[in-house]
C-alpha cells in the first residue's frame, strides 16, 4: 500500500464479505424451499428469501466496487484520497441503510414496508432487483454522489491513468443508469423496457468497465507487464463490451410487447457479447505468461485468471446458449435463465471483487502477500466455490432443459408445478452443490485469519532466496 | 496485439464505437416508443389496471412468479394466467383468496395476502390487460 488513505477500502471489503455470507445462507434457504416447499413458511416466504439473496448480492458487489475504487484510485493517481473521512461517513450510511432495508424485508410484510416507507409518494418498489424502498434508493444515489465526488477530486489532482479513467466512466455510468430505477410507468411494457436500462446496462454494460479496470490494475501489479500493453487491451475489451452490449439489450425485448425488430438486433448483437469476455480470458492469461516478475501473491493471480475464465463461461457461453430469439422463445424465464445468472454473477463480478480483495487486503495489512499456508487455504476456497458453482450451473441447466421440454416444447405441455415435481432431483443436487459452495466460502474467510505477519515475511524471504539460488545455478 | 495498432487507436474505437451505439440505441428507443401503442393496447389501461399493477408491486409478486417471462421461477408464469384460467378474472380472484394461511405441508404455497375485494379485482384486471399485450406469440403454449 502506497498511501495511507487507501486503507479506507478495508471496511468496505469486510462488509462485502460479511454480506456475501448472508447472501449464500439465503440462497441455501431458497434452494431448500424449491424441494421442501413449506420450509420456513410462512415466516420467510420464498419471495422474501429471494429478495434478500439478490439484494445482498447487489449490495456486497457495490461495497466491493467501492472498496476497489478507494484502494486503486489513489494508487493510480499517486496521491492521497481527497477525503478519507467522507469515505468513512458514506460507508456507515450505506451499511446502515443496507442493514435496515434487509431487516425491513425480514421483519414486516413487504406491503407494510411499502406503506411505512411512503412508496405511495413515488412508487418504485416491487420490481425484480429494485425492491428497495424508495428512500433506500435515494440513499444509494446520495452515497454514489459523495463517492464519485471523493474519487473525482482525487483523480483530478493526481496522475491520470487509463485504469482510473475507465473505472470512473464505469462508476459514473453505474450511478446514471440507476436513476432509471425511479421511473416506474403505469404501462407494464414501458416499465419493463426502462427497467432493463438499469439491469442490463449495468451488468452487460458499465459494470464490465469496472470489471476491466479492476482486472487491469491487479494484472499490472502482479505481473509487472508494461502499462502501455495492458491499457491497450483494456480499451479494446471495454470497446467490445459497449459495442456489443448496448444493442445487446435487445435480447430482453423479444417477448415483453416491444416491436419485433428487436429479435434481430438483440440476437445479432448479444451473440457477439461473449467476445469481450473471451478477450478478458486471453488478456489475463497473456499477461501472466508475459510476466516480468513472480509476485508472491499467487492467490491473487489465481483469482484474476479465474475471473477471466469464469466470466467467459458464465456470461459468455451460458449467455449465448439462450440468447438467440428462436431459442429464447422456449427458454425465456426458465431454470436456464437461473443457471446463466448464477455463473455469470459469480464468474464476472463476485470473482473480480475477490481478486482485488486478494491482492489488496494483504497490502493493507502491511505484507506483500500472505504466508503460504494462508494462500493455500484461500486457493482451496477458490476451487471449492468455483467448482461447486460450475455444478450449481450444470444442475440448473439440466433442470432447465427438462423444464423447457416438458412445459414448452412438446405437443402435450404439462402444468408448471407438475414439471417442477418431475425435475426435483436436479434441485436436490443443486442444493448439495450449494452446501459445498458455503463450505468453500467458510474456508476462504478462514484464510484471512490464518498465519501471522511473521510467517508471511519468512515465506517471502524463503521464496526470494530460492529464486536467487535458482538464478545462480 | 502488435505495434502498428496503438493504444490511441484502441481508445478511439472505444469512444467512437460507444458513442455511435449509444446514439443508435436512443434512436431505437424513440422508435419503439412511437410504435408501442399498437402493441400494448394502452387504451385499456384503466385506473383499476393501474391500481392492480400497484398491488402486484407492493406484494412483491415478482419474487416468486414470472410476468412475461421476467421475475422468479418458483411459481407459474402469470402473463397468460387470465387465459389459462379460462378468460376469467373471477377464477384469479378466487385462487388468490383461497390460499391457506399456514401453507400446504411439504409443498410450495402462495401466501395469504389478505387483499380486499377491490384490490383483488384490480389485480385480476391488471393480469387480464397483461395477457392482451402483443408479445409476439409468447409464451409458446397455455402452460406459460
Summarize the structure.
The complex is a heterodimer of chains A (473) and B (144). Chain A is mainly alpha-helical.
Description:
The complex is a heterodimer of chains A (473) and B (144). Chain A is mainly α. Chain A has helices at 9-35, 46-77, 84-107, 110-116, 134-157, 162-178, 188-223, 227-248, 261-271, 274-289, 298-321, 325-331, 335-364, 372-409, 416-422, 424-447, 453-472. In chain A, helix 2 (46-77) runs parallel beside helix 5 (134-157). In chain B, strand 1 (66-67) and strand 2 form a beta hairpin. The model of chain B has no long low-confidence stretch (mean pLDDT 97). In chain B, helix 4 (89-97) crosses helix 5. At the A-B interface, helix 1, helix 2, helix 4, helix 7 and helix 8 of A face helix 1, helix 2, strand 1, strand 2 and helix 5 of B.
Topology (elements, then pairings):
The complex is a heterodimer of chains A (473) and B (144).
Chain A: H1 9-35, H2 46-77, H3 84-107, H4 110-116, H5 134-157, H6 162-178, H7 188-223, H8 227-248, H9 261-271, H10 274-289, H11 298-321, H12 325-331, H13 335-364, H14 372-409, H15 416-422, H16 424-447, H17 453-472
Helix pairs in contact in A: 1-2, 1-16, 2-3, 2-5, 2-13, 3-5, 5-6, 6-7, 7-8, 7-10, 7-11, 7-13, 8-9, 8-10, 10-11, 11-13, 11-14, 13-14, 14-16
Chain B: H1 7-40, H2 47-58, E1 66-67, E2 70-71, H3 81-84, H4 89-97, H5 117-131
Antiparallel strand pairs in B: 1-2
Helix pairs in contact in B: 2-5, 4-5
Amino acid at each position: 500500500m502506497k498511501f495511507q488513505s487507501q486503507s479506507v477500502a478495508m471496511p468496505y471489503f469486510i462488509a462485502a464479505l460479511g454480506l456475501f455470507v448472508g447472501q449464500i445462507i439465503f440462497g441455501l434457504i431458497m434452494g431448500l424451499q424449491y424441494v421442501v416447499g413449506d420450509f420456513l413458511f410462512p415466516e420467510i416466504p420464498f419471495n422474501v428469501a429471494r429478495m434478500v439473496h439478490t439484494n445482498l448480492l447487489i449490495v456486497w458487489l457495490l461495497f466491493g466496487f467501492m472498496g476497489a475504487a478507494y484502494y486503486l484510485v489513489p494508487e493510480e493517481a499517486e496521491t492521497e484520497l481527497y477525503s478519507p473521512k467522507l469515505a468513512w461517513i458514506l460507508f456507515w450510511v450505506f451499511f446502515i441503510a443496507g442493514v435496515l432495508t434487509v431487516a425491513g424485508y425480514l421483519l414486516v410484510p413487504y406491503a407494510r414496508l411499502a406503506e411505512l416507507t411512503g412508496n405511495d409518494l413515488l412508487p418504485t418498489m416491487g420490481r425484480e432487483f429494485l425492491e428497495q424502498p424508495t428512500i433506500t434508493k435515494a440513499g444509494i444515489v446520495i452515497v454514489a454522489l459523495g463517492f464519485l465526488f471523493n474519487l473525482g477530486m482525487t483523480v483530478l489532482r493526481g496522475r491520470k491513468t487509463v485504469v482510473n479513467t475507465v473505472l470512473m466512466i464505469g462508476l459514473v455510468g453505474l450511478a446514471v443508469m440507476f436513476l432509471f430505477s425511479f421511473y416506474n410507468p403505469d404501462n407494464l411494457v414501458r416499465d419493463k423496457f426502462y427497467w432493463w436500462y438499469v439491469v442490463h446496462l449495468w451488468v452487460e454494460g458499465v459494470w464490465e468497465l469496472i470489471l476491466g479496470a479492476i482486472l487491469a490494475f491487479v494484472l499490472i501489479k502482479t505481473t509487472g507487464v508494461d502499462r502501455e500493453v495492458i491499457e491497450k487491451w483494456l480499451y479494446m475489451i471495454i470497446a467490445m463490451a459497449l459495442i456489443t452490449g448496448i444493442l445487446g439489450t435487445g435480447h430482453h425485448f423479444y417477448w415483453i410487447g416491444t416491436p419485433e425488430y428487436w429479435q434481430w438486433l438483440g440476437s445479432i448483437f448479444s451473440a457477439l457479447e461473449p467476445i469481450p469476455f473471451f478477450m478478458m480470458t486471453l488478456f489475463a492469461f497473456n499477461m501472466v505468461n508475459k510476466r516480468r516478475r513472480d509476485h508472491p501473491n499467487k492467490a491473487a493471480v489465481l483469482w484474476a485468471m479465474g475471473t477471466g475464465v469464469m466470466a467467459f463461461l458464465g456470461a459468455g457461453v451460458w449467455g449465448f446458449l439462450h440468447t438467440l430469439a428462436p431459442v429464447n422463445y422456449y427458454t425465456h424465464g426458465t431454470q436456464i435463465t437461473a443457471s446463466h445468472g448464477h455463473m455469470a454473477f459469480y464468474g464476472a463480478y463476485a470473482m473480480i471483487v475477490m481478486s482485488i480483495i486478494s491482492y489488496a487486503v494483504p497490502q493493507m495489512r502491511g505484507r506483500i502477500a500472505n504466508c503460504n499456508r494462508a494462500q493455500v487455504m484461500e486457493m482451496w476456497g477458490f476451487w471449492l466455490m468455483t467448482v461447486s458453482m460450475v455444478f450449481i450451473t450444470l444442475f440448473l441447466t439440466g433442470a432447465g432443459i427438462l423444464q423447457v421440454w416438458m412445459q414448452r416444447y412438446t405437443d402435450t405441455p404439462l402444468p408448471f408445478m407438475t414439471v417442477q415435481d418431475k425435475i426435483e432431483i436436479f434441485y436436490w443436487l443443486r442444493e448439495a452443490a450449494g452446501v459445498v459452495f458455503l463450505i468453500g466460502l467458510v474456508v476462504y474467510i478462514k484464510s484471512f485469519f490464518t498465519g501471522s505477519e511473521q510467517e508471511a515475511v519468512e515465506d517471502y524471504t524463503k521464496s526470494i532466496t530460492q529464486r536467487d539460488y535458482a538464478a545462480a545455478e | 496485439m502488435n505495434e502498428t495498432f496503438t493504444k490511441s487507436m484502441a481508445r478511439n474505437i472505444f469512444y467512437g464505437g460507444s458513442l455511435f451505439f449509444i446514439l443508435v440505441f436512443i434512436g431505437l428507443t424513440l422508435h419503439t416508443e412511437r410504435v408501442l401503442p399498437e402493441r400494448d393496447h394502452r387504451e385499456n389501461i384503466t385506473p383499476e389496471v393501474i391500481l392492480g399493477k400497484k398491488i402486484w408491486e407492493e406484494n412483491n409478486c415478482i419474487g416468486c412468479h414470472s410476468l412475461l417471462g421476467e421475475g422468479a421461477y418458483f411459481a407459474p408464469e402469470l402473463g397468460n394466467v387470465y387465459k389459462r384460467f379460462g378468460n376469467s378474472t373471477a377464477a384469479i380472484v378466487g385462487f388468490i383468496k383461497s390460499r391457506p394461511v399456514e401453507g400446504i405441508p411439504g409443498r410450495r404455497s402462495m401466501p395469504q395476502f389478505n387483499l380486499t375485494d377491490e384490490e383483488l379485482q384490480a389485480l385480476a384486471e391488471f393480469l387480464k390487460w397483461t395477457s392482451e399485450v402483443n408479445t409476439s406469440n409468447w409464451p409458446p403454449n397455455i402452460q406459460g
